[in-house]
Every structure is written in C-alpha cells, then in structure tokens.
Design goal:
This protein is of the alpha/beta class. Among the domains are: 4-88, Udp-n-acetylmuramoylalanyl-d-glutamate--2,6- Diaminopimelate Ligase, Chain: A, domain 1 (3-Layer(aba) Sandwich); 158-301, Hexapeptide repeat proteins (UDP N-Acetylglucosamine Acyltransferase, domain 1, 3 Solenoid). Helices cover 12% and strands 29% of the residues. It contains 4 helices and 39 strands. Strand 22 (185-188) and strand 23 form a beta hairpin. It starts with a strand and ends in a 7-residue tail after the last helix. The mean pLDDT is 94.
Amino acid sequence: MSAYTLAELASRFGLALQGDGATEIRGVGTLHGAAHGQISFLANPAYRKELAGSAASAVILRAEDAAAAPNACLISANPYADFARIATLFERLPAAAPGVHASAVVADDARIDPGASIGPLCFIGARARVAAGTVLGAGCVVGEDCSIGPGCRLAPRVTLVTRVTLGARVLIHSGAVIGADGFGFAFDQGQWVKVPQLGGVRIGDDCEIGANTTIDRGAIEDTVLEEDVRLDNQIQVGHNVVIGAHTAIAGCSAIAGSTHIGRYCLIAGGVGIAGHLTIGDRVKITAMSLVSRSLAGPGEYSSGTPLQDTRTWRRNAARFRQLDTIARRLKNLPKEQEP
C-alpha cells in the first residue's frame, strides 16, 4: 500500500502545510467516514459542521477554514481539485500487458503499436490504427478507418463504428458507441429516404466519455469534441454537433444534430438541446431544462417548474392553460386615469 507524508504531498502539489509534516497518509475518505491515516477535504461550506468531528489525519481546505481543523491540514485555493489530484496517487488500475490477446481479431492492414494492449475478443477493422500505451478492454470493436491516439483507455465493450479519431489519453467507459449513423432522413412521397452519413467523429485529447453514451458520426462533416470535454453516462450527441473544449455535460442529456456548444460550458443532467442552435462560451444550464433557442454568451439558464406537491402542481397546471386568456383580458382593461 502506498504511503506519503503530508510534507511530501504539500511539496508535490504546491500546497501550504499546517501541522505535522511527518503525518503519514495511506488513503482518502470523506469528512464523516475517514479514518486515521486518511486525508479528506472540505470544499462545500454545508459540510463545515463535520470538520471538528472528523477522524481524518489531515484535511485539504481553504485558508479561512484552517483554524477550525482538528488535525493537520493542507491549505488550497481549490480543495476539491487538489483532493482529486492526491486521490489519484491511491487509485488502483489493473495492469495491462502490451500485446494482442490470442482471441482478438485484427485486420491484415490494421496498424497496432507494440506498446498497445488489445484485450480478449476485441475486433480491429481494416486500416484502423492504435497508438502506443493504449489499452482496449475485452470485447471492444474498432471499426474501419478508426484511429486511436497514445495513452487511451477503452473499457470493455466500447464500439468505435467507423471513421472515429481519438486524440491522446481519451477514456471511454463500457457500452459507449461512437460513430454510429446520425439520425438523417428526408421525407419524400410518403416515406423516409435515408441520408448517408459520410462524415466521422473527432475527439480531442484528454476527453472522457461515460458508459452507454452515444455519439453519432456526421452526415458530411465530422461530429467534433474538442480537448478536455467530459461527458457523463447515457448522453446522446447527434450528428455534426460540435462541443467546445473543457465543457462538461451530466447524464441523460441529449443534443440534437448540428448544434454548436461553446467552451467551458456546464450542462446539468437531463437537459434537452434542440438542433441547429449555437450556445456560447461559459454557459451554465440547470438540470432538466429544454433549450429551444440559441444562447449568446456567459450566463446561467433554466426552464421548467420546480417540484411541488401534486395538488398544488395540478392547480397551477390548470391555471397555466388560462394565462393567455388572462393576459388578453388584462391588456384590454381600461388604463387608470392619471390624477
């Protein structure tokens, strides 16, 4: 088991140390659940009341909270981010030996770097390329003309359909399907005509794609995720969508085709975004919102009604249907005479 002194952690991550630097840290925990030898963090003021009773050997917190710390602490401008960096030291990832498993099927013209690890029952299609340090879990499919950059990790049962390009250090979780047909159809003479999806998908460096998330390939041009985009589980990204760098999107959101999302956006869970819209940089959208128009620039946006008891909600829903009639009546009321 790895162990680090607080002095080592402070030096390694550029944090100020308060307390005994020889304190040994062997793991991480929450303020409520941490034990001796573990380090915790305080980022949300709502948990400040748990600080005094915490059994953690050390806590990562802001300078204004340091006086209330019962034990040693590391002082940080962003405790949650520094906790994430320290927690990485204690993460146990399974070792993957370089090479191609005997049960994998690899096309003759595919190129796999000797430093890559291809797991059991994988399929690598024609003209595909896999760079050094990349790990493919069991049952992954890498289709024709796909390219995977260095240091990527695909969990078991990831599917790259065709013409998918991954940058460096991309992490894709199980069940994700990247590069399937976009939902493109033209209606003519009473039936649908399928539009060929001739583009691909380009995913930048350091992106993460959650479990069972789907990203469709473009109809003509590519669907694009710029660098450091983070997608949660069960998200649908339509064809020709562009998502700007450093944007994060929570689970069960859906983005219709040809919408452009800016950089540094935060989109909460269950958000629906209509097609052919433009969302500017640094936009925040709260959970379960429906975006039906373009959003120009920085700001926080919400839609829908907050949770109410059912009887109140039903009364308000009935009144909502009458709003237009009420508004018209108010408009037609005679204006008050000025004195």
